[in-house]
Amino acid sequence: MSRGDYIASSGPGRLFRGQTAIDFYGKRRIGLIVAIVVIVVTLLSLFTRGLNLGLDFEGGDAWDVPASEDFTTDDAADVLEENGVSTTGARIQRRSGETTDVVTIQIEEVSRDVALDLTNGFAERAGVDPEEISFSFTSSTWGGEITDKAVRALVIFLIIVSIFISIRFEYRMAVAALAAMVHDVIVVVGVYSVLGFEVTPATVIAFLTILGYSLYDTIVVFDRVEENEGKYAGVRMPYEDIVNISMNQVLMRSINTSISSILPVISLLLIGSGLLGAVTLREFALALLIGMISGIYSSIFVATPLLAALKANVGRKARRERLTGDNLRAAVIGSGVTGRVAAAPTDVEGDNDDDRDGDDTTATIVEPAGKLLTHPPRPRKKKRR
Predict the structure, then answer these.
(1) C-alpha to C-alpha distance for 359 and 377, rounded to whole angstroms
(2) Each residue's pLDDT expressed in tens, for the chain with a length of 385 residues
(3) How far apart are CA 354 and CA 347, in angstroms?
């Protein structure tokens, strides 16, 4: 039994059977307004709060001190103050190590003598040998090099993607795909800025991974759009309808792909970070999860509507109202089936000339789903010779 044998009565049923008739293009303004609001909030937050850059980017000193009841984060702060080091801007947190919990102290770069005094102070307060304390130093220059390489990788990736999509599809699709990817990165950066999450090298890796995921989801939609554009080329269907039909046809596939991608990331957060205490996994998975959710949104409400806006009425002098409701559902279910989608001339100028002078346009007429499914075409009679 094919998915078009009957129309499911419930929304989830129609979604599962690929029978949805959602007017995505009609809701484009809502989606784009939400995207613009998010971008504005992100920019305001970046100018006012900035990003909470980790030690690898800003540079500084860091200690990992074995944690116990005798040594807590408050004890670490006391040691800093006793040695004349301000706790303002310092990051002190308890973390789970491979064998035991540790208190991590990160501060701005200090002299080597002060760093040695702090190491001894931490060891004395924790009741451990100074050699058991892990100390690391990161230069701010090295952090700048990481930032430059990340930006360079981002620019190169965007250029390559633009060339690939322009060759594989067309330049308008490249513009829409790039807009969606930039939106996803801005959303993740905005969340990190507003909530004050720390940006680490693992976060940057997740940023670059997000770009690939966002591109994949968008290309899936664009591939179906291009396929349907070829199917309906003969009936001159408006591009808005092609976009709506394509989005409804790949909606369930996109949902399944997104769920199968997000579940492992949630496992990294809950099990890898929550239960096992792997902080690096949390830094990577958190950015990845936010980016994936944003990628789902951008492929539906940013990339595809923007593509439709760029190509709407290209080469067309007039247009008709979009397919909605049962007409849209019939096109989604039966697109490409002979006899289900027909072209009829529409007299725009009122001259009743069957579009012979080129002033008229061709309207696409799609019968309701019930009529399509209950009245099969009659077989042709053989002509006598």
Answers:
(1) 32
(2) 444 457 777 777 787 777 888 888 888 888 888 889 988 999 999 899 888 877 777 778 888 888 777 788 888 888 888 888 877 777 787 776 556 778 888 888 788 888 888 888 888 888 888 888 888 877 666 667 777 887 888 788 888 888 888 888 888 888 888 888 888 888 888 888 888 888 877 788 787 788 777 788 788 888 888 888 888 877 778 888 888 898 888 888 888 888 888 888 888 888 877 776 666 677 778 888 888 888 888 888 888 888 888 887 554 444 557 787 888 888 888 743 333 333 333 343 444 444 444 444 333 344 443 443 344 444 555 555 5
(3) 7
Residue 125 CA, chain-centre distance (Å), reads 47
CA distances from 226 to 170, 252, 300, 336 (A): 10, 18, 16, 13
Per-residue tokens: 178: 């790039």
Q: How far is CA 309 from CA 30, 239, 290, 312, in A?
A: 14, 9, 27, 5
Residue 116: C-alpha distances to residues 89, 109, 288, 331 (Å): 20, 12, 38, 74
SS3 138: strand
Which amino acid makes up residue 293? I
Cα-based distances in Å from 221 to 17, 18, 96, 304, 305: 18, 15, 42, 8, 11
DSSP characters over 64-96: EEE-BTTB-HHHHHHHHHHTT---TT-EEEEEE
At residue 384, the 3 state secondary structure works out as coil
